[in-house]
Amino acid sequence: AAAIVCAPAVLHDGALRGLFASLAGNARAALLADALLLAAPTALVLAAVAIIMLIQNQQRGLALAAACSVAAMLMLPPVIGFAVHFCLVHSPLQFRDHAQQLGLRQFRQWRSAVIPLSTGGLAVAGGILWLNNGTSLAHSLYASSFMALAVLVVPHMLVPLVMAHLQTQQARRLRAVLSRL
């Protein structure tokens, strides 16, 4: 995860500086790009080690996904790299995990939710581009989009941890009840 965040600073420092300044509305926010550049070598080495460990553990698909995400964030401009990572790696892996947890293993079980939501998302994106005459997004909309993503990151990362904790507690209570019987 740290490599995904830090990688754009290596080859796209200027774009990243502009993005941070635009998002924060303050030129000093561009200094965050310097901090990411300082952390990037360590994060990228750790990512390489993790990818090697995934390969050694016969998890080649995850290794390839991680390598592609890091490469996209390193080589592509920050926003495009993030879109590639999010849409082609992160979201499909999350969807697969959630579908397995919910027991939705076949397309017909989940198509009624995924197809309308995906179509709706594409319609919103198309509508924004149409309203903007196909030009790039206004800075305020662009900044708002990233701020909304930032607000969602913490709950997105905490919910699986909380759910795992609750499942563990529920399993302990069930074992305690069964042991009393």
Describe the 3D structure.
- Helix 3 (13-24) crosses helix 4 (31-56), helix 4 (31-56) runs antiparallel to helix 5 and helix 5 (60-75) runs antiparallel to helix 6.
- The protein has eight helices and no strands.
- The protein has helices spanning 2-6, 8-11, 13-24, 31-56, 60-75, 78-101, 107-131, 139-180.
- The chain is globular.
- The chain is mainly α.
Question: Which descriptors apply to this entry?
Answer:
single chain, 181 residues, mainly alpha, 8 helices, 85% helix, globular
In N-to-C order, the SSE pattern is HHHHHHHH
Q: pLDDT average, as an integer?
A: 81
What radius of gyration results from the CA coordinates? 20 Å
Number of E-type strands: 0
- Count of helical regions: 8
Low confidence ranges: none
Share in helix = over 70%
Oligomer: single chain
Shape: globular
What portion of the residues fall into strands of 2 or more residues?
under 5%
Sheet having the most strands: none
Global structural class: mainly alpha
